[in-house]
Amino acid sequence: MALLITDECINCDVCEPACPNEAISEGDDIYVIDPDLCTECVGHFDEPQCVVICPVDCIPKDPNHVETENDLLAKYKRITGQ
Description:
Elements: H1 15-18, E1 24-26, E2 31-33, H2 49-53, H3 69-80
Antiparallel strand pairs: 1-2
């Protein structure tokens, strides 16, 4: 399942550089996560780095992009070519 940044985002800019897949970018009002690039850090880390570093806890799982651990690993392999 990809992650989602909610309206509680304060645009602190700590999540974007923490994403190993470059799935996070600056949106019109808040940062956004590209669900096609988000692997919840599967393949890179044990837990999503944006969630770990977010000071306001505004990055839940995106219910519109449900994926299993195997799906996320396959996406990681596709993105990284590994």
